Amino acid sequence: MHNKSILTKDIITFPTNRKFDMTLLGRVAIDFNPVDYFQTLAESTTFKKYVGGSPANTAVGLSRLGKNVGFISAVSKDRFGEYVTKYFENEGIDTSHIMTCQHGEKLGLTFTEILSKDESSILMYRNQIADLALEPSVVDEEYIQNSKSLLISGTALAQSPSRDAVLKAVSLAKKNHTPIIFDIDYRSYNWTNTDEIAVYYSLVAREADIIMGSREEFDLTEKLLGLDSNDKTSADYWFKQNAKIIVIKHGKEGSTAYLSNGEDYSIKPFPIDALKSFGGGDGYAAGFLNGVLNGWDIIECLEMGSAEAAILVASHGCSDFMPHESEVRTFIKDEKAKYGDMVARV
Amino acid sequence: MHNKSILTKDIITFPTNRKFDMTLLGRVAIDFNPVDYFQTLAESTTFKKYVGGSPANTAVGLSRLGKNVGFISAVSKDRFGEYVTKYFENEGIDTSHIMTCQHGEKLGLTFTEILSKDESSILMYRNQIADLALEPSVVDEEYIQNSKSLLISGTALAQSPSRDAVLKAVSLAKKNHTPIIFDIDYRSYNWTNTDEIAVYYSLVAREADIIMGSREEFDLTEKLLGLDSNDKTSADYWFKQNAKIIVIKHGKEGSTAYLSNGEDYSIKPFPIDALKSFGGGDGYAAGFLNGVLNGWDIIECLEMGSAEAAILVASHGCSDFMPHESEVRTFIKDEKAKYGDMVARV
Amino acid sequence: MHNKSILTKDIITFPTNRKFDMTLLGRVAIDFNPVDYFQTLAESTTFKKYVGGSPANTAVGLSRLGKNVGFISAVSKDRFGEYVTKYFENEGIDTSHIMTCQHGEKLGLTFTEILSKDESSILMYRNQIADLALEPSVVDEEYIQNSKSLLISGTALAQSPSRDAVLKAVSLAKKNHTPIIFDIDYRSYNWTNTDEIAVYYSLVAREADIIMGSREEFDLTEKLLGLDSNDKTSADYWFKQNAKIIVIKHGKEGSTAYLSNGEDYSIKPFPIDALKSFGGGDGYAAGFLNGVLNGWDIIECLEMGSAEAAILVASHGCSDFMPHESEVRTFIKDEKAKYGDMVARV
Amino acid sequence: MHNKSILTKDIITFPTNRKFDMTLLGRVAIDFNPVDYFQTLAESTTFKKYVGGSPANTAVGLSRLGKNVGFISAVSKDRFGEYVTKYFENEGIDTSHIMTCQHGEKLGLTFTEILSKDESSILMYRNQIADLALEPSVVDEEYIQNSKSLLISGTALAQSPSRDAVLKAVSLAKKNHTPIIFDIDYRSYNWTNTDEIAVYYSLVAREADIIMGSREEFDLTEKLLGLDSNDKTSADYWFKQNAKIIVIKHGKEGSTAYLSNGEDYSIKPFPIDALKSFGGGDGYAAGFLNGVLNGWDIIECLEMGSAEAAILVASHGCSDFMPHESEVRTFIKDEKAKYGDMVARV
């Protein structure tokens, strides 16, 4: 455990006087989670529908934590496109830059199989998918200028034209001094080979101020760089590019935030009765990034992230269960009362 | 009303000593029907999963009526493909000719919007769809030789290679004297223009012994033939090709079976409290075709078809609600007790 | 040798009072034939450009023999599309139903490798090809009504939408009593499997009044029919459908025309110093079909076909070298003077 | 005119002890140039075949000037693929990293229309093109390590997977301290929108040590950067990234090399009787880059580039007419004798 700590605003600052605290670029999709789980997806008969997709969940999380959120994506021209757009509007997320596809592209669907608390998997519908049809023309400079930060979800890099839209957004963010957060969010579905992954992940990572991912995701990103799959090496490499904060996650062993001043801080998961093994990352991102946008103490950012992750993996869905700040604080307080102040700290 | 009637076995006969009473070629898919209906699909939150797809429903219906049923189709290599295959096996339908796709094709999904008893619509996922990836090589002559009849669902004609597989099946059916039933089953989704529809529908219709469809479906089929959109004209035209029975449906006004001996017989819908405006056609096909395979009196065939249609539109799903023969007979008896013997007859 | 012979007009008749003697449906392309041949295509340095494509060559041949010719096809929106269209106009072929592609499709190119008199092969450019982009809407009924006969080139069946256009044309030809000539013209390039070939070839063959092809092409057509790869069996099968004349070619061993009255007549190749091993079939088709359109004695039709074939294989290109009638007659006379009256007869 | 000049080796240096002086990544194609020119391509009848494609021409040029040249590309599995590979081998260009496509991709073809000395245009065959099918796996680190410099032809960025292969090569070049030359070489054919062009051009330009292009090509590259379409602004911007030399071409008005030390040097075209309006750029690149690799005086590099450009536009083809050093020097000497020493200098 560190005796010391540091305010994140001493590590990274964001422009002021911009409308959106963060604009996220990436997919919004629909999750169908079984009500009658703990059996295979073939056997489950009844499903609840939720707005899903990693950056969409994080956007909802940030909005519920009080942030003003923009979103760049593409949706289908049907009731499902209507559903996610209205859901965003109800959550106070700006939908002015959500394009409606015109050529029969469909919103992604994720059917969740919850076999047990530890085993879950997903069946994805991502053929001729709306989100990867995002046109670069949707990314306009004014929107980037109006955003204090830009989050890129790595899945949006899987195919053109969405890939081109991401790279355009990164270019405009650099030009307009908008800090970039790269949430690697690897999904194998739409990629063709690991060289392709390494090329595009590293292009964005090189420009990013904050990079978040698992060890495996950093390995994919660094494949062509000759690094050694070590967290410290990774952090040092990216600090030499543009990064200020590198967050590397190790599942149940917790995660570590490396700072460009050479320090690093870790957090452990809160003990919790998990229902499913996913959704935690999106909650973590919302909790952690909200803190960083606020310039909070790094430990507080990590604790909020870890708490949101815990709340999410215990829930039946993702977006709908993103907590408000008071709920996170109550959760942390209850956990500390039960398990001690250091429950999540290292 | 006719005072006379006629046995269908005097109009059309089927080969004997073959393993399957009918083999159906066409899609099997999954229906997701909202539990909280009477609102838009965007608003519904909970969905029940059913095996769907018109020929799949009809296959289940026929199997429950005691027929030995074969099926030719292609499914996805995932839990959903596993689901529909196991469902068929449980229903006693032969799955030896259901191919598993290897290139990421997905099973079709149909999300149902039930706005009111009269207004329902569907949202289909049919991009890079498994059923239209059916390879001609799956259609083998021995399977056709083992079938007393072959049902072609028109949707399977929408794209190659499934289209090629259908035409191969038709060719082999002609060679092996297997009567062909053409259930037009028009779905606009995968077609590109009406000439294409007319070309392929008419190719199969020309060889069919029984053709079933709505007036609109016959019009699509006959677009290049210079007919006059009149039921009698249609029937006479197809009798000059290979047809023995032509069934033309007019929704709530009922339907008529034209026979190659010049007679025609009509049926009306049973009065019923409908829940949704679809699924009826698949029940009708099962009830009617079961009767024809049995050589029953034409009026009895029609009444069984109409009764199954009524049972289906009053149900939450399709396949799961296909009745056994005793249930259909009970339904008819109850309706007649309530509304009189002529309730569905013309 | 037959002592007897028969007029083809006693076997097949054509409608009168129609503008075009024949409308051909199929590809028009460009041949690049090396000037410095007898080496590999990699080594040849200089090429002559000719209008090519089997039905295009036959169309030019028929036009030069005095026939009024229509053509249905699709060409590229570039100088090459302009080239072939102008060439047709100069040859007096109607170009009103040659569609110009709008999505970057290119005219097919055929680079010929002439290694020796007996060994030649071709390298084809047929990716995103103009001719297979032919839309069914280009095939209009009035054009078919204005044609005394319709020739379908089998290559046009290789892919949709061209395939759909062919089947529409066949349907309209039947309706308007326009005799159909099916020139099988197998090219492996754009097909995916032999079931597909068999399905679509047999669909057209079944409706055709005249079918022309090699033994191998008939085998491809008959794959699903259970025949025995015997010429007489083939002819008898197709006579039971709609055929009046079946021409089966055996390369250097000659060819035989089977007639629906049970007779058959054969012809041998004229002895000639060949330059290349292709183009002969297109000349044969022009010579033979011109005779049949004129109702000539069957032996005369075959002799004219064989003579044109000989002239073509001795030429550097195809279309440009299609002879006028007087040239063919001079060729035959010269050959007979040199080799005797029975030079090509059996 | 400058009184001073500077050695390019004082501006940019290359690693020593590497096998290849330069490895070029980009297309190799075939040019078909009319022998009977000064008319439209529709009218020309005879064509000479040449190896073509901008980087292929430059590679031949460099090899003839004595450089050891590597090449990364993909070719068709046919006689044309064989042709260009053998041609390279005869020219002494390494072909170990030229992949052979396996899915029917074809080598690009360029048909040249030479209407007059000033008007020429091209008709390209680039559907399902071999060069853009280049797989990233072909780009191996050892090859980049063995190269003193890497030239990227911008056309290779037009589509994935070739685009991915370029970006991988750039990444490996940075890692291995291999200077990058970016020859923008804009061809509209395979691009979909100008954002896409700007994104990928600027990604490579940002890493390049030398960038060569026309004003229009720099404008395309800089579209998202907010520059002002001024040569000096462009040069200064790229010097702030990684560039050492920026060459901007203005056609008949000549071209200017901007150096990272703030100096700039210009050259004019040699007066010449041009035959066609293209090919000059590839000759220019060969002549100029050969000089830079040798560390020559910048004025000498430019003069050699301009001389090669002049020789090329006066020739019937490109690759075949790339001169040896003595020929270039003779050409310059002759021009100076005729027009004065300052004929091309500014």
Description:
The structure is a homotetramer of 346-residue chains. The first copy, chain A, is α/β, with parallel strands linked by helices. Chain A has a domain at 14-24 and 61-75 and 132-339 and 341-345: Ribokinase (UDP-N-acetylmuramoyl-L-alanine:D-glutamate ligase). The first copy, chain A, has helices at residues 54-64, 79-90, 141-145, 162-175, 194-207, 215-222, 231-240, 280-294, 298-313, 325-339; strands at 22-25, 29-34, 46-52, 69-75, 97-100, 109-114, 120-125, 150-153, 180-183, 210-214, 245-249, 255-259, 264-267. A 9-stranded mixed β-sheet of chain A has the order 5-4-1-8-9-10-11-12-13, with helices on both faces. In chain A, strands 3-2-6-7 form a 4-stranded mixed β-sheet. The A-B interface holds A 32, 35, 40-49, 78-80, 82-83, 86, 104-106, 109, 111, 113, 123, 125, 127-128 and B 32, 35, 40-49, 78-80, 82-83, 86, 104-106, 109, 111, 113, 123, 125, 127-128. Strand 3 of chain C pairs antiparallel with strand 3 (46-52) of chain D. Chains A, B, C, D: One of its GO terms (molecular function) is ATP binding.
What's the topology here?
Four copies of one chain form a homotetramer.
Chain A (H helix, E strand, L loop, with lengths): L21 E4 L3 E6 L11 E7 L1 H11 L4 E7 L3 H12 L6 E4 L8 E6 L5 E6 L15 H5 L4 E4 L8 H14 L4 E4 L10 H14 L2 E5 H8 L8 H10 L4 E5 L5 E5 L4 E4 L12 H15 L3 H16 L11 H15 L7
Parallel strand pairs in A: 1-4, 1-8, 2-6, 4-5, 8-9, 9-10, 10-11
Antiparallel strand pairs in A: 2-3, 6-7, 11-12, 12-13
